Amino acid sequence: MATTLDARTTPRELLIEEVARVIFAGGTVIFPHDTSYGLACDPLRLDAVDRIYLQKRRPDHKPLTLHIAGVAELLEYAPGNVVAAAVAKRLLPGPVTLLVARPSFISEEITAGYPTLGMRVPDEPLARAILDRCGPLVVSSANASGDPPYRGRGGLERLPTADLFIENGPTRYDGEAAIVDCTRERPLVLREGTLSFELIEARLGAAERQVVKVRR
């Protein structure tokens, strides 16, 4: 790890500007999200996207996720998708990944060739401040593929290599993000996580009660 900054002791403006400097230079940064720490880069720098796959030893058939500062900006990536709009407004910010049709300006390298793009608005103020400064970032959990994600509670030695590491203690949640497919007429819960299927259904309300639970 080239540089480490502790968000609990480093002035916020200085920290965010250092993250932006590394990201805009094509580097990779590990910083805290709501469910785990994330390894992030600029989605327009495909060389940096390649480095995320290499640093995590992640198989190239597994897609990455786009993290965005706010709901309004997220919905710009899914214009006219009323399902995504309803789900986003009720569940985000929060530990939920929305799947939408991949916009043409998003590289297939990010989605591993899949026709869908996963997007998140994390329930973590520092992460959203970084995303607000840097713009949307490609993110994957900060761990080698197959290892448990780093949540600030031990396992620091398992972190992949990155140009900058932002420490902020334990994450807000201790579980995975749920995944909701918004490419259908009704939202489809592909994976429960920190939010259970029952809680997701309750938040979506009566108009979305045909949400389907996929059993794994």
From TrEMBL:
Presence of keyword Transferase: yes
One Gene Ontology biological process: regulation of translational fidelity
Reaction(s) the record says it catalyses: L-threonine + hydrogencarbonate + ATP = L-threonylcarbamoyladenylate + diphosphate + H2O
Cell compartment(s), UniProt: Cytoplasm
Domain YrdC-like: 13-195
Main localization category: cytoplasm
Protein name according to UniProt: L-threonylcarbamoyladenylate synthase
Organism placement in taxonomy: unclassified sequences, metagenomes, ecological metagenomes
